Amino acid sequence: MIAHIGFEVADLARSARFYDALFFPLGCRRQFEGPGAVAYGRVDPRFWIVARGRVPAPAYGHVALEAVGKAAVQAAHEAGLAAGGRDDGAPGPRHQYGPRYYAGYLLDPDGYRVEIVSGSV
Protein backbone atom coordinates (compact mmCIF):
# COMPACT_ATOMS: atom_id res chain seq x y z
CA MET A 1 0.00 0.00 0.00
CA ILE A 2 1.25 3.48 -0.82
CA ALA A 3 1.77 5.85 2.10
CA HIS A 4 2.16 8.85 -0.21
CA ILE A 5 3.41 9.88 -3.63
CA GLY A 6 5.60 12.85 -4.48
CA PHE A 7 6.34 14.74 -7.67
CA GLU A 8 9.30 17.05 -8.04
CA VAL A 9 8.18 20.24 -9.75
CA ALA A 10 9.98 23.14 -11.40
CA ASP A 11 7.81 25.92 -9.94
CA LEU A 12 6.10 25.11 -6.63
CA ALA A 13 3.66 28.05 -6.72
CA ARG A 14 2.57 27.30 -10.31
CA SER A 15 2.11 23.60 -9.60
CA ALA A 16 0.28 24.32 -6.33
CA ARG A 17 -2.25 26.49 -8.20
CA PHE A 18 -2.84 23.60 -10.64
CA TYR A 19 -3.25 20.98 -7.89
CA ASP A 20 -5.39 23.29 -5.70
CA ALA A 21 -7.85 23.53 -8.60
CA LEU A 22 -7.61 19.86 -9.55
CA PHE A 23 -8.08 18.48 -6.04
CA PHE A 24 -10.95 20.79 -4.98
CA PRO A 25 -13.68 18.87 -6.90
CA LEU A 26 -12.24 15.62 -5.51
CA GLY A 27 -12.67 16.73 -1.90
CA CYS A 28 -8.94 17.09 -1.18
CA ARG A 29 -7.26 20.11 0.35
CA ARG A 30 -3.78 21.23 1.31
CA GLN A 31 -2.72 19.33 4.40
CA PHE A 32 0.83 20.70 4.54
CA GLU A 33 2.56 23.77 3.16
CA GLY A 34 6.21 24.66 3.59
CA PRO A 35 8.93 26.55 1.70
CA GLY A 36 9.80 23.56 -0.48
CA ALA A 37 6.70 21.38 -0.41
CA VAL A 38 2.91 21.29 -0.54
CA ALA A 39 0.90 18.16 0.31
CA TYR A 40 -2.73 17.27 -0.33
CA GLY A 41 -5.22 14.80 1.08
CA ARG A 42 -8.67 14.31 2.52
CA VAL A 43 -7.45 13.66 6.08
CA ASP A 44 -3.69 13.10 5.86
CA PRO A 45 -1.10 14.38 3.37
CA ARG A 46 -0.85 11.70 0.65
CA PHE A 47 0.10 13.59 -2.53
CA TRP A 48 3.19 15.79 -2.32
CA ILE A 49 4.73 18.28 -4.72
CA VAL A 50 8.27 19.33 -3.87
CA ALA A 51 10.79 21.79 -5.28
CA ARG A 52 14.41 20.67 -4.95
CA GLY A 53 15.97 22.64 -7.79
CA ARG A 54 16.17 19.65 -10.12
CA VAL A 55 14.55 19.42 -13.54
CA PRO A 56 11.40 17.23 -13.48
CA ALA A 57 11.27 14.17 -15.75
CA PRO A 58 7.66 13.82 -16.92
CA ALA A 59 7.73 10.58 -18.89
CA TYR A 60 8.20 8.08 -16.05
CA GLY A 61 4.54 7.27 -15.38
CA HIS A 62 1.40 8.76 -13.92
CA VAL A 63 -0.71 9.06 -10.82
CA ALA A 64 -4.40 8.11 -10.69
CA LEU A 65 -6.67 10.16 -8.45
CA GLU A 66 -9.95 8.65 -7.28
CA ALA A 67 -13.16 10.59 -7.90
CA VAL A 68 -16.66 9.90 -6.63
CA GLY A 69 -18.65 9.67 -9.85
CA LYS A 70 -18.44 10.90 -13.42
CA ALA A 71 -19.39 14.48 -12.50
CA ALA A 72 -16.36 14.73 -10.21
CA VAL A 73 -14.09 13.38 -12.97
CA GLN A 74 -15.45 16.02 -15.35
CA ALA A 75 -15.21 18.84 -12.77
CA ALA A 76 -11.62 17.98 -11.81
CA HIS A 77 -10.59 17.71 -15.47
CA GLU A 78 -12.11 21.11 -16.26
CA ALA A 79 -10.54 22.68 -13.15
CA GLY A 80 -7.14 21.29 -14.07
CA LEU A 81 -7.40 22.70 -17.59
CA ALA A 82 -8.45 26.11 -16.26
CA ALA A 83 -5.47 26.07 -13.88
CA GLY A 84 -2.84 25.55 -16.55
CA GLY A 85 -2.99 21.80 -17.20
CA ARG A 86 -3.11 20.32 -20.69
CA ASP A 87 -5.61 17.75 -21.90
CA ASP A 88 -4.21 14.25 -22.38
CA GLY A 89 -7.53 12.42 -22.80
CA ALA A 90 -11.02 13.83 -22.27
CA PRO A 91 -13.23 12.26 -19.59
CA GLY A 92 -15.06 9.19 -20.81
CA PRO A 93 -15.46 5.45 -20.45
CA ARG A 94 -12.31 3.35 -20.59
CA HIS A 95 -13.79 -0.09 -21.15
CA GLN A 96 -10.35 -1.61 -21.66
CA TYR A 97 -9.90 -1.21 -17.87
CA GLY A 98 -13.32 -2.52 -16.84
CA PRO A 99 -17.02 -1.98 -17.50
CA ARG A 100 -17.41 0.85 -14.94
CA TYR A 101 -14.05 2.57 -15.49
CA TYR A 102 -14.51 6.27 -16.33
CA ALA A 103 -11.46 8.52 -16.51
CA GLY A 104 -9.95 11.71 -17.81
CA TYR A 105 -6.26 12.54 -18.25
CA LEU A 106 -4.26 15.74 -17.85
CA LEU A 107 -0.65 16.82 -18.03
CA ASP A 108 0.30 19.02 -15.09
CA PRO A 109 2.48 22.16 -15.59
CA ASP A 110 5.65 20.02 -15.61
CA GLY A 111 4.22 17.41 -17.99
CA TYR A 112 3.38 14.73 -15.42
CA ARG A 113 0.37 12.64 -16.43
CA VAL A 114 -2.55 12.82 -14.00
CA GLU A 115 -5.52 10.46 -14.31
CA ILE A 116 -8.84 11.19 -12.62
CA VAL A 117 -10.89 8.00 -12.33
CA SER A 118 -14.25 6.78 -11.07
CA GLY A 119 -15.56 3.22 -11.07
CA SER A 120 -12.17 1.53 -10.98
CA VAL A 121 -11.99 -2.15 -10.24
Automatic annotation (TrEMBL):
InterPro entries: Glyas_Bleomycin-R_OHBP_Dase (IPR029068), Glyas_Fos-R_dOase_dom (IPR004360), VOC_core (IPR037523). GO terms for molecular function: lyase activity. Keywords: Lyase. CDD domains: VOC_like (cd07262). Residues 1-119 form the VOC domain. The keyword Nuclease does not apply. PANTHER family: GLYOXALASE FAMILY PROTEIN (AFU_ORTHOLOGUE AFUA_5G14830). This is Lyase. It comes from Paraconexibacter algicola. The lineage of its organism: Bacteria, Bacillati, Actinomycetota, Thermoleophilia, Solirubrobacterales.
